[in-house]
Design a protein that fits this description.
single chain, mainly alpha, 6 helices, elongated
Length: about 110
């Protein structure tokens, strides 16, 4: 997703979370700036966009905006951790499945032919 799409997604998440009007106004301001990027193929991670918003003067000066954006970051990191946890299974959880005797017998016969 490009910057424009990420910002609109951030605005929707803020609205769902019941964020302050100041937070939504800040994101709206950046959406207007990103209008030119609407058709861009450049992909921008959502976490990067939220961190960029957090560094803005408005976010640093207003606790409500800062807290709303921090809540978004926490949600993104929680989803990422859950996704990563599901993707990787430790080796000790893998079930050991030994090959049957017939596999080794066939392998030995094949080697004798060669």
């Amino acid at each position: 997703m490009n910057a424009y799409e990420q910002l609109t997604a951030i605005r929707e998440q803020l609205e769902q979370n019941g964020a302050s009007e100041d937070s939504i106004d800040l994101v709206e301001k950046f959406i207007k700036r990103a209008e030119s990027e609407r058709e861009s193929n450049t992909s921008v991670p959502q976490i990067m966009m939220v961190r960029h918003l957090l560094r803005q003067r408005e976010a640093l000066d207003n606790d409500a905006i800062y807290n709303d954006l921090q809540e978004l970051i926490t949600g993104i990191e929680t989803r990422r951790a859950a996704r990563d946890e599901d993707a990787v299974r430790p080796a000790y959880e893998e079930e050991h499945k030994p090959r049957p005797k017939s596999y080794y017998k066939a392998l030995r016969q094949q080697n004798e032919k060669n």
